[in-house]
Amino acid sequence: MRRAPKHDAKVGSPVATLKSNKKRSEELVERLNRHPEFRDKVEELLDIADNKSGDANKADDAEDLIWEELREMGQRIFQDWAQRKHDRVVEESENRKELSRKEKKGSTGTRR
Length: 112
Description:
This protein has a domain at 36-93. It has three helices and no strands. Helix 1 packs across helix 2. The chain is 64% helix and 0% strand. The protein is mainly alpha-helical and 112 residues long. It has helices at 14-34, 36-49, 59-95. It is elongated.
């Protein structure tokens, strides 16, 4: 059974939309500042979209440049994600008392 969407008097009003857009923009800037390498890539994408360098004479050129930037950005995102995940798993396992680090044995056995 589908529910009818809740009605909000503020939705659609110019003031509510402006506040919502401003808040979203502030949140985006805050997130990009936590990841400066992504902020730089987003700026590069915007430069391509604006054809700031003048390298894109045709839409195909701009598309190729954007896809290359997105591939590099995606690779970096996944590398960073994997590193954060690894760090979190290591930290969690070090904090668990039932898991103890295994020490390498000092001897190979009994003497002859």
